[in-house]
Amino acid sequence: MGDTQDWAAGPGAAERARSVLAAAWSCAVTADGAREEYVGAHTVTGDGGVLLDVPEDSALFAAALCAPRGEPTAVLEFADVAPVPVRQRIRARLWLAGWFSQRGARLLFTPTRVVLRQPSGAVLIELEEYAAARPDPLATAEAQLLTHLADSHPDAVERLTRLVRPESLHAVTRVAPLAVDRHGLTLRIERTRAHGDVRLAFHTPADDVSQLTERMHALLTQASAAACPRALQRHRADGDR
């Protein structure tokens, strides 16, 4: 279910794809008719290639060496999972089609097609745009930042709902931090049988964690000056019964 809050500035598809890639800890590889899962085995090159550590006696290593050079022979899949438990926890999926070549004891995957699927739909990203993009500066710190906000500062999350339009809080049962990037914070608004997302924009982008702290304090100051939504007041009262 979508909410009526207008969406603020956010990362483009290429930057979002590179952020998913930078933060992912695991990936699935489909090649030569087989699918394998790898955890903590990949790193990313500056232009978005993927270096993968696989055993030299693995079927994937053999298939990569035997495949025609330069032809798409494999697909890598990365899932962007929300750090805080929420409904429909996968925020995006990234697929890279391309080919492997040997780089010492590792395999280098060169993408020839990049597709990012988010709740809004799938986007085919131009290869030059993908290669030139850089991850969001908060991408690798996001998981720790959001879990700390949810676990240690639930009062702050509740206060931020004062910046959400009242109609988006109708029948709310839970609000949780879903995502954060240099442009803003996204809250997941959960209801009994539905949910929606609302984005709170920062006044200027945050280029690092220290700037993010200042941007969050600015949002909280703004929220403190706003009235508590009636929908949330009713939910709090119902929960106290």
For the sheet with most strands, the description reads: 8 strands, antiparallel
* Main structural class: alpha+beta
State the CATH architecture of the largest domain: Roll
Helix content: 25-40%
Please provide the ordered H/E string of secondary-structure elements.
Answer: HEEEEHEEEEHHHEEEHH
Count the strands?
Answer: 11
Average pLDDT works out at: 88
Count of discrete alpha- or pi-helical segments spanning 4 or more residues: 7
Radius of gyration: 21 Å
The CATH fourth-level homologous superfamily of the largest domain: Electron Transport, Fmn-binding Protein, Chain A
CATH topology of the largest domain: Pnp Oxidase, Chain A
Strand content: 25-35%
**Contiguous uncertain segments of 5+ residues:** 1-7
Distance between the termini: 28 Å
Name the overall outline.
Answer: elongated
